[in-house]
Amino acid sequence: MRNTLLFSLAVGLLAMNACQPEAATDDLTIAGKASFTLMQERILTPTCATVGCHASDKDPSFAQHGLVLTANMAYQNLVNVVPKNSLAKTDGLMRVKPFVSAQSLLFHKLNTDASHHAGKQYGNLMPLGSDPLSVGQIEFVRRWIDAGAPREGSVVDATLLDDKTPSVTYAPFELLSKPATGQGFQLNLPQFSVTPNFERELFMRRELGNTADVYVNRVQVKMRPNSHHFIAYGYKSLNALPAVDQIRDLRNPDGSANLLTFLSMQNHIFVAGTQTSTHDYTFPEGAALLIPANTSLDLNAHYVNKTSVAIPGEVSMNMYTIDKSKVVNVVRSLNEANTSFSLPAGKTTVITTNFIYSKLRTILALTSHTHKLAQKFVIKIKGGTRDGEIVYTNTDWGSPEIVNFKTPIVLKAGEGLTSEVTYNNSTSRTVSFGLTSGDEMNIIFGYYYE
Prior knowledge:
Shape: globular
Order of helices and strands: HHHHHHHHEEEEEHEEEEEEEEEEEEEEE
CATH architecture of the largest domain: Sandwich
Distance between the termini: 108 Å
Number of domains: 3
Largest sheet: 9 strands, mixed
Strand content: 25-35%
């Protein structure tokens, strides 16, 4: 009798267990794992720690961001680490600040909504060239940071990682609203295609349409997603300009350099630029950039596509003007070049150049231009009470940082700027200043007035 009861009970229990739903594979996979481990496996490793981005210090972009996000490096490189991004550093952000996602650059770089950090943009949305993270993934990162960003322990609901709600819904691209008649000009780079797994950088010369000199006090830019940078260049010489309204690619479809396009870049003068998808810069009151009559600009866009399908690129730029009577300080493009240097084969060389001004000069913005052998471009103040102060640093020759100073740099007569450029000539020949991709450059661009 007793054996019969035991047998019946065992059969009943087996039947009950058979009626229970099987544990989902995902649930078994994530059970007992730390939240950071899940974030690494589901977000950082597949979307960030990829070749060319944050996989190693050998990635081409490493010099710019200095961040490796592989499983053995990510935590120590993120938590309580000061970022290289100059604006984020100025605003007191950390890459990850435990308990404060609003002061963590990682959260801002993944989040498409800039409203949560006062509308500021800290560079391109990540992952660059790929689909943005889902709503659930971004929320998982936010909660992990606000829970103290621990390396161990489960502190976030893991089911958020399965939320596939898109964080971005791409609407048809709308051009900027044109400035009213007599108040400015609009130049657009029409839609173009970026092939799968390719970085496309191109130029198009476009005529502004100003029959007389104009004074620009505001520049506004809007781009489709996945842009790396946009720069509008003027020309040092008006002889032999490229054809109007024709796309000129910097690279051929096989990735090799397009020599004719490369040569055309040596005639450039910086006019405006941005490394974020939207940009709105206004010069200080009473200051305006002089744009000569009949100006044409070379519009330069760089897009990254890491997906398996073609993506569109497109840029819209407005230049707003003011009447000459309201201009107190005429802004001009800064163009300081060292054309007399030599880089010995197989050596690292630092080239230092001083540019001294005979009149009081106010610097509003700085950027740099070199070729691929340059590893670091530093600009310092020369002379005066701020002698030796570093005001600009760039480690990405292909997409140099553009710094618009909130407080302009005032240089008295006899003071100036110093460029300190580190080159690694890994070739077997001596390299000097020149116009081809095999030569080198050493130029400070920017804005100033006297």
